[in-house]
Amino acid sequence: MWNLDDKARYVKVHSFSLPEAFTYADTREGQTDRDKRERIRAKAAEDFPENIPSIKWWAFRIFIKKSGNRRFDIDNVPKLIVDAFCKRQIEEDRAQQYTKLGLFPDDTIHFVRIIEVGGMRSQDEDITKVEIFGCK
What we know:
The structure is a single chain. By secondary structure, the protein is an alpha+beta fold. It is about 20% helix and about 30% strand. The protein contains 3 helices and 4 strands. It has a 4-stranded mixed β-sheet with strand order 1-4-2-3, with helices on one face. Helix 1 packs across helix 2 (about 80-85).
């Protein structure tokens, strides 16, 4: 398999946490995929590195805590996060203020090869922790 903590092979480029947990394909006002990508980008933009090292391809490690008992499909979480850093999606969202967050041209396997997702129910909080790695 792989070990994203292997510093000989991978470099952690950025990490951040969102005080919410959500999936894609919600059409309610303020909860659309575009709205969620904007919230992801806004949080990621805080302390985003100025210089990105040379990367062969990208990997994401995502951990979610979700409160309550409503259905929550964890497999629908990574799409929004990966797309938030896709140059094509940033352009389609007309999110020019986040151009510097565009790490890869498209969200295909050519550019993003690993997505690790884990999660658990929580009594009192919703949180999404995101780590972004590059293969050296």
